[in-house]
Write a structure and sequence with these properties.
Layout (H helix, E strand, L loop, with lengths): L15 H13 L3 E5 L5 E4 L1 H7 L6 H6 L10 H5 L2 H9 L4 E8 L11 E11 L5 E10 L1 H23 L2 E6 L10 H7 L3 H4 L10 H17 L3 E8 L5 E12 L5 E10 L1 H36 L3 H16 L1 E7 L2 H6 L9 E7 L5 E10 L6 H46 L2 H13 L4 H32 L8 E3 L1 H18 L3 E6 L4 E5 L1 H17 L6 E9 L2 E8 L33 H11 L3 E5 L7 E12 L1
Helix pairs in contact: 10-11, 10-13, 11-13, 14-15, 15-18, 16-17, 17-18
């Protein structure tokens, strides 16, 4: 690989001084020189070449350029720009002038700047006319090209600006009359010179603007001040266009007006846009005020906790915001049906109240707008307020539900204290008897029996509380197996029989499961049936009738417990499976309980992917509790 500078020792046919002079001339020449071999390889470069391309001796890029890997005849940039064929001609012995090209050293992985260069390639021959080398001389014309490009861009920009300008240019006499022709005025207005001279130009001004324009123009002429105005000017096609006018007085050496020079600029779209913007800003101001009112109404609706208060706030805010004489809120299914078909009409606007689940819970209606008719904007505002109010009604319902649950919890705690305290009195009395040590054997047995019975009662209460704790924390786990429903029924009947017998009830078991099995936890399902049987026994007067029926329904096993007891009032039915809910007690509280049995029933059946329901025709009409469990196979 050849290095960049020529050899330090002269050839045999060249004296040392001459060689040194030529070598220094090559190195110090201000023109970039690149010596090529006839095959297109780079043999030597001078300092000016290195400075031009920022490729220095000793760098990897210089080594690459000077190696056999790089050849100017195969350089992609030179091929693409059409320079490579010209260089081939130089390598064949022809002196060639190369056109200006843009060359980027980055394509060779260099860091030098992009340069515009012109070049000349000249073959160097020996005495026998054989081509020894090709001298490639570069001229950096980057600044010249960039200056020419910048000038061209400025000229193009100026031409575009002139073409885009639509101005009418005119001149007037010192007293404000038209005397000199204006081709641009005639082209725009279609007036002839005779029509527009003197003050005839005013005939092209819109009639509504004519008098004010004439007075303003004559005032500026009299005071020698700049005339600035906007008026509508009739175009040659008959349309009126807004123009912005500026007339400047040209003074002579004595300060007198020599002439007026002015222009009319077509600003029709600008004026219309300004007018539209002003209208839009006015609408935005009104909308902002409305939104402020809507936001205030939303805050009020979100702070009210009771349905009646929400309805009152909604009516007042809707009347104020929509400027209507009357508004009505209806919370009923009938009105909810109406709101699905009603449309806004001249003096009435109706919007549904829809809760989070998509259910129609009512209707907000507005009547008699104070000014004009209800608009789409009014309807949009009403829809927004209706949505906020519907959430408010839903929140109020939840709040009332929480209050009710809190009340039931307090009642439950009071009842729990009573239920836990009741067994203590007989236990304490029996303990006192045993403490005296003078009781007979029968009395001791009787006291022990009292203590045992009351302890079992306390244990039952505590077991129920533990079950509730496990339910509320999601800790119930099922031990699943294939079960015979009839075996579950038999076990439950056996456990409930003492209570049923104590109340002198008649228990009948009817039907069967048709050989179907169910998959479940035997202990928990027996617990469900015992709860339903005990519930029926407790709320049925002595001597009542209880029927437990079993049937097969397609792919389910259905078990129901029916009694002819006190029944359930209609308002209580939706809540019988809620925790801490208990129907009104009979005067006899001995078989009371904590009101959590049915909640456990629902939870256990739900864990078995089953369903439980309650039905009663009212107080005194008895009750029916029905559970449905998926059949898992045949026995």
């Amino acid at each position: 690989m050849l290095s960049s500078p020529p050899p330090r020792t002269p050839p045999a046919d060249c004296d040392a001084d001459t060689y040194i002079r030529f070598r220094e001339l090559f190195e110090q020449c201000p023109v970039s020189i690149q010596i090529l071999g006839p095959d297109g390889r780079t043999l030597r470069v001078n300092k000016a070449w290195e400075d031009l391309w920022h490729i220095r001796e000793g760098t990897p890029l210089m080594d690459f350029v000077m190696s056999a890997e790089y050849n100017v005849l195969r350089d992609p940039q030179l091929i693409e720009s059409g320079i490579a064929p010209l260089l081939e001609r130089a390598c064949r012995g022809e002196s060639v002038r190369l056109p200006v090209i843009r060359y980027d050293v980055a394509a060779l992985r260099g860091s030098g700047p992009v340069r515009w260069v012109a070049a000349r390639a000249h073959p160097l021959k020996d005495n026998a006319s054989n081509i020894v080398e090709v001298m490639l001389m570069h001229e950096d014309v980057t600044e010249k090209v960039e200056a020419e490009n910048a000038l061209r861009i400025r000229e193009e920009r100026f031409r575009s600006l002139v073409l885009a300008t639509s101005q009418i240019v005119w001149s007037n006499t010192p007293d404000g009359r038209v005397d000199e022709d204006s081709p641009t005025w005639r082209a725009f207005t279609g007036q002839t010179y005779e029509e527009w001279r003197d003050f005839g130009w005013l005939d092209a001004v819109h009639p509504d603007d004519r008098a004010g324009t004439r007075a303003a123009w004559l005032a500026c002429v009299a005071t020698k001040t700049v005339f600035e105005a906007r008026y509508r000017l009739r175009r040659s096609d008959g349309d009126y266009r807004w123009t912005e006018v500026r007339g400047v007085p040209i003074l002579d050496a004595e300060g007198a007006i020599r002439e007026w020079i002015g222009t009319n600029t077509d600003v029709h779209e600008i004026v219309l846009a300004e007018a539209e913007l002003a209208q839009r800003l006015e609408r935005e101001k009104r909308n902002a005020a409305l939104l402020a009112k809507v936001a205030q109404a939303a805050r009020k609706l979100q702070t009210v906790l009771w349905s009646g208060d929400i309805a009152e706030v909604l009516v007042n805010e809707v009347r104020d915001i929509l400027q209507a004489h009357r508004a009505v809120v209806s919370l009923s299914d009938r009105h909810a049906e109406v709101c699905r078909t009603d449309q806004a009409i001249r003096d009435r606007l109706a919007v549904p109240l829809i809760d989070r689940t998509g259910r129609h819970i009512g209707l907000i209606e507005v009547f008699d707008k104070m000014d004009g008719e209800f608009s789409d904007e009014d309807e949009a505002i009403l829809v927004q307020l209706a949505s906020i109010a519907a959430n408010g009604f839903e929140n109020a319902r939840l709040y009332e539900s929480l209050k009710e649950q809190d009340r039931r919890k307090d009642e439950f705690l009071a009842m729990l204290a009573h239920e836990l305290r009741n067994p203590l009195a007989p236990i304490a009395a029996a303990a006192e008897v045993l403490k005296l040590g003078t009781a007979s054997a029968d009395r001791i047995r009787q006291s022990s029996s009292v203590i045992g019975r009351q302890v079992r009662h306390l244990k039952s209460l505590i077991d129920d509380l533990l079950d509730v704790s496990r339910v509320t924390r999601g800790l119930i786990q099922l031990d699943l197996a294939l079960l015979d429903p009839m075996a579950l029924v038999a076990s439950a009947v056996e456990q409930s029989q003492p209570l049923i017998a104590a109340r002198a009830h008649v228990l009948a078991v009817e039907g069967d499961a048709g050989g179907a099995q169910i998959r479940g936890d035997a202990n928990r399902l027996v617990q469900v049936l015992v709860n339903l049987l005990n519930n029926a026994a407790k709320y049925t007067p002595d001597g009542g009738r209880i029927v437990l029926s079993v049937s097969r329904d397609v792919d389910s096993v259905v078990i129901s417990v029916r009694d002819n007891g006190t029944g359930i009032e209609a308002g209580m039915l939706p809540h019988v499976f809620d925790l801490f809910t208990q129907a009104k007690r009979t005067p006899d509280r001995a078989q009371g309980g904590l009101g959590i049995g049915l909640a456990l029933v629902k939870t256990i059946i739900s864990l078995h992917d089953g369903h439980v329901s309650a039905h009663s025709d009212g107080l005194g009409a008895g009750s029916v509790f029905t559970i449905s469990l998926k059949a898992a196979g045949q026995t």
